[in-house]
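Incident review: delayed structure delivery

Summary: a single-chain prediction request sat in the queue longer than the usual turnaround. Root cause was a stuck worker, restarted by the on-call engineer. No data loss occurred. The affected request and its eventual output are reproduced below so the record is complete for anyone auditing the incident later.

Affected input:
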Amino acid sequence: MAELETACYPIVKEAAFDRTEIERLSYRASALVDKGRLFFPNVENGSRSKDGDGTRVKLLDEVLRACYVARHLAHNGTVNNRLLREQVWEMRDRFIRLLQKEMSASLRPVDKQASGQSVALDPTSWSKPKRKLKLPGDETVP
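Output delivered after worker restart:
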């Protein structure tokens, strides 16, 4: 969903996706709906189902929305669409919340002491790292 969010409204022009790339996002999202049904089977409610197979759980609706957004972009082109990006961003949040709700019995408990902090958007304002990063090609200085 993060890739799809960027495809809707890239921050930089070079990050723009072509229609083929977006079509791939569409079929990957569609496959995720199918895989999701292995873990979250349809609900037998009888009211919305035409074929008696039941209805998707809300969690998978969010993945299906991602598929539809990708199909829309693949068909109509990747016009910068901030509103669509905001919708996908919100959809990602709903997906995580619904997944946590579905999995709540198996999630480990977390107390208030584990709460994170607000993270500044500008990484250049973060404090200097305490650990020295060593990458291949770095020269060791005695």
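Verification: The CA atoms of residues 42 and 57 lie 6 Å apart.
Action items: add queue-age alerting; document worker restart procedure.
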